[in-house]
């Protein structure tokens, strides 16, 4: 098989997705893989990779149901440098011929659950004790790159902002309690400078301050999430009544404010979901196309609306605690979180331009990076070869892809909206936009060398 070949991703339909061709996932699958789209089904995710839950297929193979993993098992050279003979390294990097990353597109109509993903150590423990819930032993750091305007919750707000939110939503304060809130307020302020220039809070050094703040935040979150369901329902009802008095509704409040967010989530998850309050402790961010979020292990988050590219370590481990009818593993989530608190602006990644046309998103983990190439009609750009495998997705327009291998052979393929390709290592890739309209191409890749040599671009 060639070292650049087409794939068909697998479509996943969940209740939080977007119906019919209003969903970008549906449009990509329809155009790229000839999927029949039901206008009444919510198309939520497009999976690209080797994950056992929904492995990609290879339509150019004599048997179209052949999975990408089957092809890689039969031709291991597609996973590594064709001149390399180090099979031990390949076995370590790609156990059982799996890619180290999972590439997705998400179309979100209703909010996803408040969740976090375990680190490797916790993932191993959870899988060993609850394999029915946690089906693999890998961590799941992930990155989202906005394809449209995209709303999300990510990480805890700074403590002072949480205290301000409680002032705006007093029913939240009722659930947390006066003593716990007072502890949070004390932890959030009172910094003094010492003679040696270090910072103190009530006589404590910076690391003691941070630990004190984390423990105060942990107490707030745990107290809220462990409230009796009947009490949560009563306070939710009271909050809705107050916010919708005098003829007001969710549209009466600016989008993303605590009041608007609370009413929106209550409308999506009626019946007393504590996540409607829990969401108010997290940073609200609104991304524009091309902006990104990196979500490390043990950090709380929830996607709210819009379309995004998502790339993650190859795992499906999720610990949930709100905004979901699924199992809420509150004790595990409360225990696992880092309780770091940062401003919303610190959560957004702009990416690094590595050419006039291509942006690199390189999170601080080895499993994956992502390239975004945007070309105007007639433009072209060149991406260097990397030491590991890549998956390429066309999200807009028509493009000609050509690659030059080390043996100087060249292959050219045509890509359109929804086209997906696998690219083997060490192939230099040229992207050329057709003259009719601009094109946008995303490429997820693994590079054992630790990153692109940008001077080659």
From TrEMBL:
Top EC category: isomerase
Pfam families per the UniProt record, alphabetical: PMI_typeI_C, PMI_typeI_cat, PMI_typeI_hel
Phosphomannose isomerase type I C-terminal domain span: 360-401
Binding residue positions for Zn(2+): 115, 117, 142, 301
Domain Phosphomannose isomerase type I catalytic, chain residue ranges per copy: 4-159
Positions in coiled-coil regions: none
Cofactor(s) of this protein: Zn(2+)
Family under the similarity heading: Belongs to the mannose-6-phosphate isomerase type 1 family.
Protein name: Mannose-6-phosphate isomerase
Species: Gonapodya prolifera (strain JEL478) (Monoblepharis prolifera)
């Amino acid at each position: 098989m060639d070292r650049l070949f087409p794939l068909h991703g697998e479509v996943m339909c969940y209740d939080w997705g977007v119906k019919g061709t209003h969903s970008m996932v549906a449009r990509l699958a329809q155009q790229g893989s000839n999927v029949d789209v039901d206008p009444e089904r919510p198309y939520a995710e497009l999976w690209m990779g080797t994950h056992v839950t929904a492995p990609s297929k290879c339509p150019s193979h004599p048997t179209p149901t052949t999975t990408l993993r089957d092809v890689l098992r039969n031709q291991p050279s597609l996973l590594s440098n064709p001149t390399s003979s180090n099979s031990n390294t390949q076995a370590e990097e790609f156990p059982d011929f799996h890619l180290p990353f999972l590439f997705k597109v998400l179309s979100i109509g209703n909010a996803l659950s408040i969740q976090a993903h375990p680190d490797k150590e916790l993932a191993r423990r959870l899988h060993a004790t609850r394999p029915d819930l946690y089906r693999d032993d890998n961590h799941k750091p992930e990155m989202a790159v906005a394809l449209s305007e995209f709303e999300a919750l990510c990480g805890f707000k700074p403590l002072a902002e949480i205290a301000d939110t409680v002032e705006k939503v007093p029913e939240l304060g009722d659930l947390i309690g006066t003593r716990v809130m007072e502890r949070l307020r004390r932890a959030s302020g009172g910094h003094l400078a010492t003679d040696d220039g270090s910072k103190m809070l009530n006589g404590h050094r910076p690391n003691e301050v941070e630990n004190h703040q984390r423990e105060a935040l942990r107490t707030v979150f745990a107290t809220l999430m462990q409230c009796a369901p009947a009490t949560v329902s009563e306070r939710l009802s009271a909050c809705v009544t107050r916010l919708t008095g005098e003829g007001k509704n969710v549209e009466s409040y600016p989008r993303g404010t605590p009041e608007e967010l609370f009413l929106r989530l209550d409308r999506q998850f009626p019946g007393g979901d504590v996540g409607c309050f829990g969401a108010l402790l997290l940073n609200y961010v609104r991304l524009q196309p091309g902006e990104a979020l990196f979500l490390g292990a043990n950090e709380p988050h929830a996607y709210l609306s819009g379309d995004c590219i998502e790339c993650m370590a190859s795992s499906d481990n999720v610990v949930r605690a709100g905004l979901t009818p699924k199992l809420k593993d509150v004790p595990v989530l409360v225990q696992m979180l880092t309780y770091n608190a940062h401003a919303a602006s610190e959560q957004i990644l702009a990416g690094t331009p590595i050419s006039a046309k291509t942006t690199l998103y390189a999170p601080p983990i080895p499993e994956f990076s992502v390239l975004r190439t945007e070309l105007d009609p007639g433009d072209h750009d060149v991406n260097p070869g990397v030491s590991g495998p890549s998956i390429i997705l066309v999200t807009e327009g028509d493009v000609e892809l050509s690659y030059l291998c080390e043996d100087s052979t060249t292959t050219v393929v045509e890509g359109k909206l929804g086209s997906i390709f696998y690219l083997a290592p060490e192939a230099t890739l040229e992207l050329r936009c057709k003259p009719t309209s601009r094109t946008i191409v995303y490429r997820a890749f693994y590079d054992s060398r630790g990153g692109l040599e940008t001077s080659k671009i």
